[in-house]
Write a structure and sequence with these properties.
Elements (H helix, E strand, L loop, with lengths): L1 H34 L4 H26 L7 H34 L4 H4 L2 H19 L1 H4 L14 H4 L2 H42 L9 H36 L6 H26 L1 H27 L12 H6 L1
Helix pairs in contact: 1-2, 1-10, 1-11, 2-3, 2-10, 3-5, 3-8, 3-9, 8-9, 9-10, 10-11
Length: 326
């Protein structure tokens, strides 16, 4: 019964993750075609990585509903390696997004010269190579594998606790510390900008409206801060519990980590597209335009179907009234 409930939760979560990130990816592709802004590639890569998290979780959903299921050990190792790689790619993508926003605030006048298509491509390729190395490390280093009598594939069923400790030390916590540093530095830059504006306004040399550059700084800082907070709240309990489990195997049950804390970490892949669609104005605008376009096509199709059910009927000008009603 508990296995079916966990499988249902995983199925719903995976469906939401895939749907949300695919929609964000479509919107970002439309936005990149219109603006050509290179920074959107990092956000697009984040959506692709999070969508891959959803796709890899679907395999675990099948396991939950396929009882009894006794997969080979190497099958479980490869399956969990794909799950770990996609999660690592999501975390690394968040790092690149934060670095990109930091660079845009730190050097706004040189940003377009520094962020070129070649450099973006090299960074993205390096990101996926690093994510693959992290995820498939137990495949190439059997010392990180563990033979278990468990029926289903799980992290602690196929990975040795030292592997989780290694991933935490070389992956998660450096990324978290980098997030904190970038946020604090952006906060410092934004506070300096606000102080300069206040000095100019006090001298009577500025108008009533603040410059748009400072407004964009504050919005970028707020976006990064929310991403950092959601990332820490989602993944920090899982990695802390994994480290405790490595030091004291009897202190923390494996099932709690794998069934509850890991699900909390997966929620980060659902929060990322929701945050970007809510906080970035250009993404929201593209979403509204895409929704309006889909709605217009549906209304036109329904209008033609109800008004002109026959085939080969010539269209009448009254169809254009549907567009005015939108």
């Amino acid at each position: 019964m508990a296995s079916s409930a966990l499988g249902t939760i995983l199925a719903v979560l995976a469906s939401l993750i895939i749907t949300a990130n695919v929609l964000v990816a479509i919107v970002l592709l439309r936005l990149i075609q219109k603006s050509g802004y290179k920074g959107h590639y990092f956000v697009l890569n984040l959506a692709v990585a999070d969508a891959m998290v959803g796709f890899t979780v679907t395999g675990l959903v099948i396991d939950e509903f396929s009882k009894p299921f006794y997969p080979p050990h190497i099958f479980c190792v490869l399956r969990m390696a794909f799950v770990t790689s996609s999660s690592a790619a999501s975390i690394l993508s968040l790092t690149l997004v934060a670095c990109d926003r930091h660079l845009a605030i730190r050097k706004p006048f040189h940003y377009l010269q520094l962020v070129t298509g070649l450099r973006v491509g090299v960074q993205l390729v390096g990101l996926w190579l690093l994510a693959a190395i992290i995820g498939f490390l137990p495949v190439f280093a059997p010392v990180f594998q563990k033979i278990s009598a468990q029926e289903k594939c799980s992290f602690f069923g196929v990975f040795h606790p030292t592997y989780m400790l290694t991933v935490s030390c070389i992956g998660f916590f450096p990324a978290l510390f980098l997030f904190i540093y970038l946020y604090c530095d952006m906060l410092k830059i934004a506070s300096v900008h606000v102080q300069h504006i206040r000095e100019v306004e006090h001298a009577g040399l500025a108008g009533s409206c603040p410059p748009p550059h400072t407004t964009s700084d504050m919005k970028a800082m707020r976006t990064v801060a929310i991403l950092i907070g959601c990332f820490a709240l989602s993944w920090l309990p899982f990695f802390i519990a994994s480290i405790v489990q490595t030091v004291c195997t009897e202190c923390f049950p494996y099932k709690v980590i794998e069934s509850y804390l890991w699900l909390l970490g997966l929620c980060n892949s659902l929060l990322n597209p929701l945050l970007y669609s809510c906080w970035q104005k250009d993404v929201r605008l593209q979403f509204s335009q895409l929704a309006a376009s889909v709605k217009r096509r549906i209304l036109l199709h329904l209008g033609n179907r109800h008004r002109f059910p026959g085939t080969g009927t010539k269209s009448l000008p009254t169809v254009s009234c549907l567009r005015l009603q939108d």
